[in-house]
Design goal:
single chain; about 160 residues; alpha+beta; binds heme C; Cytochrome_P460
């Protein structure tokens, strides 16, 4: 069983860092989760962002794809006026350098946690975590001007 030991140790460390609330570990888990969901195929495109690689206005790459998970889609379909996106909402943004989506610049994710706060994460093209955290000022500085801190589209 010896060869298993390093892998086991690594997964224990990962579990521990998540348990301790390490933002980086949580961001890694979140990226894994949306990839397991196959977000590029299974999530809806955000309202107002129907086209692949639409020109973006933020710092996340010149051309963006913005996807929303089921929780957001269902809230939009229900159409009830909301003052905040529900817990479990996830928005994923692929930011590309080019209109042909050959060079990925950043992947950015927002996840609505209990207590009404967003967890923010941004990743380099090699998946390393550039920024991560709850209510992160690096992100909210720009995002606070949006409805419930979402810049690309408004609340129902
Ligand atoms: C300089 C301003 C600015 C900063 C700083 C910024 N964003 Fe954004 N972000 C935007 C704009 C503008 C959009 C709308 C889409 C676009 O134009 O690219 C956006 C869109 C997004 C989206 C799609 C959902 C939405 O809110 O529209 C995500 C996810 C996102 N940003 C994550 C982040 C994360 C994570 C950080 C911090 C690491 C961050 N952003 C920092 C300006 C900013």
């Amino acid at each position: 069983m010896r060869p298993l030991a390093p892998a086991l140790l690594l997964s224990l460390l990962a579990a521990l860092s998540t348990a301790l609330g390490c933002s980086r570990g949580q961001a890694e888990d979140l990226l894994e989760q949306v990839r397991d969901d196959d977000y590029r195929s299974n999530y809806a495109r955000a309202p107002g962002w129907p086209d692949p690689q639409q020109p973006g206005f933020g710092p996340h790459g010149g051309f963006v794809d913005i996807y929303v998970n089921e929780v957001v889609s269902e809230a939009i379909e229900a159409g009830e006026p909301l003052s905040a996106w529900p817990e479990g909402s996830i928005i994923v943004k692929d930011g590309w350098e080019d209109a042909d989506a050959e060079a990925l610049r950043y992947v950015a994710i927002m996840e609505k946690r209990g207590g009404g706060e967003w967890f923010w994460a941004e990743y380099e093209e090699d998946d390393s975590v550039a920024y991560a955290g709850l209510d992160l000022s690096t992100c909210t500085g720009c995002h606070s001007s949006g409805e419930d801190q979402v810049r690309a589209f408004g609340l129902p």
